[in-house]
């Protein structure tokens, strides 16, 4: 089993994690802020982009995998367009950005479809992405219009 485990300690690392979690889906109830531990975690079903082959016709199914992404050293969390009273509402993660503040602090932006977003004020970038188990097949590959 090829379980992905990535760590981000700067914005370049965070861009790599962002590419791996693009189009991940999760429920609002999968978002957890542990204020005392200064940790924000997202349980997700991520699309396995690293197994996709660009430009090749592919007949076999695509894959998704259960993963968790967490950020440490989180000072504050702000959400827009997300209703915490609807824990079963599905979110689709589009990208993760970092907006620098006074080095090494800044804001990690989690951008979701439907104009939803979460901003994490962080002391510094410290994120981990870990796959939790086997992949499963999905016939649908996310598409990006443009």
Q: What's the structural domain tally?
A: 1
Record field, number of beta strands = 10
Helix content: under 10%
Strand order of the largest sheet: 1-10-5-4-3
Distance between the termini: 34 Å
Task: Describe what you observe in this structure.
- The protein is mainly beta and about 150 residues long.
- It contains one helix and ten strands; from the N terminus they run E-H-E-E-E-E-E-E-E-E-E.
- It has one helix spanning about 10-20; strands at about 5-10, 25, 30-35, 40-45, 60-70, 75-80, 90-100, 105-110, 115-120, 125-140.
- A five-stranded antiparallel sheet has the order 1-10-5-4-3.
- A hairpin with a 5-residue loop joins strand 7 (about 90-100) and strand 8 (about 105-110).
- It is globular and about 50 Å long.
- The termini are far apart.
Question: Which helices and strands, and how do they pair?
Answer:
Layout lengths: L4 E4 L2 H11 L3 E3 L3 E4 L4 E9 L14 E11 L1 E7 L9 E11 L5 E7 L3 E7 L4 E12 L8
Antiparallel strand pairs: 1-10, 2-7, 3-4, 4-5, 5-10, 6-9, 7-8, 8-9
Short structural description:
The chain has one helix at residues 11-21, and strands at residues 5-8, 25-27, 31-34, 39-47, 62-72, 74-80, 90-100, 106-112, 116-122, 127-138.
Provide the descriptors you would attach to this structure in a database record.
146 residues, mainly beta, five-stranded antiparallel sheet, 8% helix
